Structures
1.
Amino acid sequence: MARFDLDNLVFANKDVLREDWQPDNLAERDAEMDTCASALRPLLRGNQPDNLFLYGLTGVGKTAATHALITELLDAAADAERHLEVVELNCTGITSSYQVAVNLVNEMRTGDAHSHALTTVSLEKDPLPETGHPQKRVFRELLKDFESAGGDVIVVLDEIDTIGSDDDILYELPRARKTYDIDVNLGLIGISNDFKFRENLSPKVKDSLCEKEVHFQPYDAEQLVRILEKRADRALADGVLSEGVVPLCAAMAAQDSGSARQALRLLRIAGDFAENGPSDGDPRITEEHVRRAEEEIQRQQVVEGMEELTRHGKLVLLTVAHLEAEGETPERTKVIHQRYRQVSKREGSDPLKRRAMHDHLTDLTLQGVLTKIDDTSGRGNYNQYELDVELDSAIDALEVEFDDLSAVRETAHRNHVL
Ligand code: ADP
Ligand code: MG
């Protein structure tokens, strides 16, 4: 087949499986969107809306639902001849209220900086520098800009948990009408993946930001099947989908996280394998492709997790991989530490004390690379650890840091764990 031949492709429109593709009407989130709509509806009569706080694990449709809802609301506002504007900011990488304010101002002033944002405001003013003003002054500037927008304003702060405890802005914005005497109805929508952030909000912020809270539950397998079928229909060429593929992607994602993002990713990568693998001119996505996609995703996950590990974090992971290859996992901290000392010395590093090493076990567990198992059988109460990813994926990822791991692979084969 010629390299750029467009016959016999798996994808008809691959963009539809991309994470940032916006579905026309979002299924499976009617109840959540109804609640949000009732909070925002007063805007259509020129009244103050309720502020909204949306939370739930990653990939459960919070951002997609917000986008779909605001698109509907803007249409309704146009019909009702109400002037409504939107400013949206994704707060990833932003760690303070001050930065949120500066970025909101610049979102309105330098329009296309965030191409996926919903922001409708575009003001002809010079952007603010990132630092160097008193916070009060930046807040005032922000509220003046809201007034200049010319109508009522909805502010969407996505992934707001990154600001941590520096949450002044979430206190100030809901009170802006009074404190700064501006004549704008301001609706605030905060979105967070982090349950702790909500618990740790100061009580005064909680009262005003969380007037209506909407919890997005993980999707179950049936919901994911329906979500995937719709997208697959548009994304894939006719007849390339084997029967069990969508249910398998849905089941894997439902079991792990309930994330539509994960389910879509499995299907997209499986499609890649089908499109680029050997074929007799009649490519099909099979369950085997989905299984390979899962391994590939896990491998990427470990590689990404590994990038954040220190040298000793990697040594700890290598130790657990050795034990896993020997069929010895789950294993207790004490034994892991003994092996870790040997592994470290062989790799030319001074081993850490047991407690410091244990911190790495905890980190790896939080990253989903290891699983902790409480063993309360027998005397005493031990924590045991094992890999939470395929051994093969872990070894692939470790090979980026350590030279020759063929011995671990051989051991694993001998013990039939690979
Ligand atoms: P979150 O913001 O909760 O992390 P997103 O809204 O970004 O999750 O959703 C992740 C991906 O899954 C996006 O590509 C989104 O379009 C898709 N998605 C989520 N929920 C649905 C749904 N109900 N129907 C169709 N696609 C969905
Ligand atoms: Mg999101």
2.
Amino acid sequence: MCGIIGYTGSNCVKDILLDALSLLEYRGYDSAGIAVNEEEKKKTEIFKCAGRVSDLKAICDTKQITATCGIGHTRWATHGGVNDGNAHPHQQGKVTLVHNGIIENYRELIADYDLQDVLRSETDSEVVAALLNHFYQGNPGEAIRKTVSKLKGTFAFVILFEDQPGVIYSIRNVSPIVATICKEGAMLASDLTALCRFTNEYFVVPEYHILELHKDCILLTDLQGQKVEPQMLSVDWELNSAGKNGYPFYMEKEMMEQPDAIRRTIEGRIMNGLPDFTGDGVPDELFTNCERICVVACGTAMHAGLVAQALVKSMVHVPMEVELASEFMYSDPVIDEKTLVIAVSQSGETIDTLEALRYAKRQGAKCLSIINVKGSSIARESDYVLYTSAGPEIAVASTKAYTTQLSVFHLVVAKMAMLRGAYTEKQAKAFVQELQRVPEVLETILEQRKDIHVIAKKILEAKDLFMIGRGLDYSILLEGSLKLKEVSYIHSEAYASGELKHGPIALITRNTPVVAAVTQEKIMSKELSNIKEVKSRGADIVLFIKKALAGDLHQEYQLIELPDMQDVFMVFPTSVALQLLAYYVSSDKGFDVDKPRNLAKVVTVE
Ligand code: M6R
């Protein structure tokens, strides 16, 4: 959470910082600010405000800013309300900094160093600026070392010292920082989105290392002062794939990209019609030696795990749990060297998932991760990684990351089923063949989006909405319901249809909107009975139904017919249809679809 950028070079820093902050705004959009190092004036000037980057831009446009070195921040508030004073950067004496993370012992630091009277904000971050200033005697490295030795928590700090013009310092623990040097100068950011318009080469700043950006060089040292060579990585994202490409919102663009994203993700992992992870360096033994599987993930990524769990149970017959990463290590889970832990994350930076992975590794488990962002923390710390090739996902609501995660899971499940003798080679080939149809099927459902828009218009005014389904449909509706609530602010709950009569059906009154998914033939008749039960209580029902199962149901219900696939693949068209529903409700209500209130794309606080 929180977007960070720093630049020092020969170009005017203002535009570089503001452009980068616009790209990073999905990490937090409560307030924005920049600090520029005016070498001639020998001072660091700050411009900041509560609100969006566009508000900050309006302020900066009225100022004459010629500096070529500066830092910037977009905030997702943790400590202290959303107001100008709590916006970053924070300045104390000669020190100006921006921060991503949480300093857990900030109260003790205020008391121990008697900082109460100098603080002007309610943030934990300003306490660190004051502490750095306390230790600063003209040697930035020494002040940074002394300061971080006192801190408990997670942090990525980017710091300017007023008497070190043109130089940016940074240090981090857990919270990410990537950096690069290119012809424009040296720069760092909380994530690659802000850098890839300048270069494809970058490195991840190691934890507890001091980074110095100079106009023409980068210096990385460990806490003992030893020089460390940065490990350069390259990214294949292009600038235009991080833009909106003519769509009004990133969410729409990203939904439309799903067919290609899935094609890219599965191609190269299919050899002679069978799943193959040789190119990823994932050995078959990973799938044969484990006695149980445990998925750790949050939000949408966790929902992808639920689909995989249903597949593994029915196709591979191996015990599998899906754990909310934030609850995982506090619940004393049974994890050992016979457990395969699969961490799923778009960003690869979700701290709950990262901590769950670290816990699992300490217990001796083998860890595989399914990640979208190359070189991210979870990817780096996993034993094996299967990258999704979704490209940059900017909208807070996850869409293409989810369906690409599902496609990887389908390959993993087919591989396991074959390796463990639950599937013959012929069955595995047929399964993979159906998976290869997914992109074209999604193209069909995306072409049908106008029909879903019509349904969306009918629920614009709803306060509550329910989604019901059984088996895989229920797993998909959990995700569909999360999507709807996060972008439309309609209270939406997904229920396993059979559970309704045990309580939730009490919530159904006349005209309550209910979205029902019917894509699984073997449980269809039971599902239809449950739908009847809510219809009898006056609910206003829309069926998202597999075309082949629709029969004459249109006489009784409003239907969205989904293109036919084998049942275990119906998760793909159903989830895309539900994404479209959420999107149209949000955009028709006039909301900022890509930046729903209170949320951020990358969740790096526990
Ligand atoms: O980056 P991650 O996949 O680890 O993020 C996990 C969740 O924060 C994320 O999926 C969140 O639930 C999305 N906003 C849902 O659309």
3.
Amino acid sequence: MAIVAIIGRPNVGKSTLFNRLVGSRDAIVNEFSGVTRDRHYGKSEWNGKEFTIIDTGGYVTGSDDVFEKEIRNQVSHALDEADMIIFVVDTADGLTDLDKEVANIIRPHSKNIVLASNKADNSEREMMSAEFYQLGMGQVFPISAINGSGTGDLLDEVVERLPEEAPKEESEFPKIAVVGRPNAGKSSFINQLTGQDRNIVTPVAGTTRDSINTHFNAYGFEFDFVDTAGLRKKSKVHEDLEFYSTLRTIKSIEESDVCILMIDATVGFNVQDVTIFSLIQRNKKGVVILINKWDLVENKTTNSIKEYEESIRERIAPFVDVPMVFVSVKDKQRLLKALDITLKVYENKNQKIRTSELNEFFLPLIDRYPPPATKGKFIKIKYVTMLPKPFPAFAFFANLPQYIKDPYKRFLENKLREQYDFTGIPVVISIKKK
Ligand code: GDP
Ligand code: GDP
């Protein structure tokens, strides 16, 4: 999926624009607290084209020197990672030196840049936006992020210039992404599995720009590792590493079927792991948690694994039906078991259950434990069916869907998980009007 980044100096309205573009659609929005400021990432769609949008954030003012350096950084990262850039300036402030500075950096890439003159809330302001033609960045799009005017024209232009979607790859093997914080052991894992014998692996093109997957075929397993190039050549040292490694993670998750979330046993499952986990979940991908460097954990008792698992489940609740494997990449312990479970999760994700079978299972159960009557009305679920989606999604048809609340949906989901193996897979339960 194409990436559109919003850049510009602080206070020009980047996050307001971000919020407007992402809107209230069923968007995946994540916030990262970076060193400097929160960043946002979400999905947007215009004229039938979907894209990922990033608010690269502004920087808290420091000394002018630091400030300029940070703007340079922000811009160069955006140029590295994004397919299109929306360069936002502030009509009310008019043209500033910093705008000119940014324009000078990005001008060589102007075919991928759209200039938005924000805060053009009325026609007088719209006229003022003409000033920004001086930047020599082509057409100026006067917009108001606050009231929305002009944003349609802006998006027309952005979408028009987005690269065509890469043709869907031939390879129909399971796509496995290895994600996790730096130093968890991700590249060691891949190298351990693939590095010894060159015959095991072949590079295959990924579906996103500059990603290279690795086709793996050994020990009875055949699948593609997503974006191994990014893992192997340690990414350029970015000062803003955290955000950009997260961006890579996002791309890998989107491209995968199942994610291996690797953590370092000596560090534990922390906030960033929770963020990655929820990204996987919200993208509806399968997940297996590998607790690596188990060799380094001292004084292990028979209970250590159980306790460790429990502590992780507490953090990932309510989606706790997730396999965990304790491995040591260094000592090659349980690596094949990890692959085995990962591919089982892939199967779980793709299982299709016939409507007749689902109804035979659910209808008697619902009869026995019906949704609680609300406002004196009986709620009846008539039938259930699996929806044709790339992830398991179930629709229950009811007379009064609005009265069926989350606890009852959770009950349905739990029963589903008891009956079928959806371990490692987020399932979606929706209630529809019969
Ligand atoms: P950022 O630092 O570039 O992300 O800027 P923000 O989105 O935080 O906006 C900075 C300020 O500008 C806030 O007070 C916004 O309410 C205001 N603002 C953003 N967009 C508009 C707009 O289109 N018109 C006006 N009048 N104010 C805006
Ligand atoms: P990445 O940033 O997630 O790709 O992590 P690396 O694969 O570069 O590994 C980070 C460090 O952890 C390296 O020094 C590895 O040698 C070490 N490491 C990886 N796996 C293990 C393991 O299972 N046990 C021990 N003791 N060290 C490991």
4.
Amino acid sequence: MEFNIQQVRNDFPILSRQVYGKPLVYLDNGATTQKPRVVIDCINNYHTSLNSSIHRGVHFLSDQATEAFENARETVRRFINARHAHEVIFTPGTTAAINNLAFAFGERYIAPGDEIIVTEMEHHANIVPWQMLCERKQARLKVIPFTDQGLLQTETLQQLINDKTKLIAVIHVSNTLGTVNPVADIISLAHRHSIPVLVDGAQSVQHLSIDVSKTDCDFFVFSGHKAYGPTGIGVLYAKEKWLEEMPPFQGGGEMVDVVTFEKTTWNELPFKFEAGTPNYIGAIALAEALKYLTSLGAGNILEYEHQLLRYGTEKLLALGYVTLYGSAPDKSSILSFNINGVHPYDAGMVLDKAGIAVRTGTHCAQPVMQHFGIDGTIRASLALYNTTDELDILADTLQKVKTMFG
Ligand code: PLP
């Protein structure tokens, strides 16, 4: 399909609104993306005509909703190319997926003295749950550092690995630096030592073509709301082997087979890991978002976003007073920067009044800020509906910021 930016923009109702009387320039897509009409309509339609709890009812509406929910699971499976639909566990989001995994994996595999490796560029969601697990189990967290260019020093991984290493958890695309990490290489090295790898795909699934079978990752997590879907829904993909071996992370309805006061047995996959009434409408709407991305074409999205990234990078550097963080050759559409001599928060306030939504601060990645010795950055994170005109507006407004504060 031809990638027609005006048509794409028309698919997102919110993009035509104004803020402070100015056209909205939404460049905070790393935090959350806007929703296409198909997703909004899907949520409305389900509440209007199909709402019913899944898996439990014997009536028409429950049957229909159950079928739609399981079809959504199959859509996710296809989108990330998992081998089995039962390897797709719906969760409330990336953070919930990692916390749940840290609990179940920790219960089954982590003992005192064991080690878990993360990277210096992780989002807090892929640091803190592992840190909490290490504290619970007297295990140790180790860190792969990155260079000032924003490249993981993967050559150190070989030295960090030993026979106590139980898991490597790595961010696929950095939410602060944009770096696309060489996850396939990391996985292949880890597997040579029989170590499983978790890939945090919160910033990759909406930009890159994902193939969990090809990269052979053991776990892959992402959030619906960052991939044009709704909030409150996300995915934990895990290889069948791990799901079979790990205990459930929550107990309750639907995840059980037989319950007696003496003993309870677990339901089959994936239900063993989906206790309680799931966010089925969220899952169904997430599937709509993924179908929408598929209809645009992963290659088209990648090419268009790369053009935007190149254009935005040149624009910012041409200003002459901007420090850009993250210049990996393989980079996703994130521009993290500071205006020399201006606090990011001050810049963010001025940009806001011009109708421009960016994120300022540490982006839930304080170790990245500590690496550079800075308080925070301004982050313009680009999506498939952004335009070069919007980047022009950004650059012009930054010039005003510099004049006001510089
Ligand atoms: N991981 C990365 C790389 C992220 O960028 C984010 C959110 O910004 C998260 C995890 C957490 O996602 P959520 O807040 O949707 O659980």
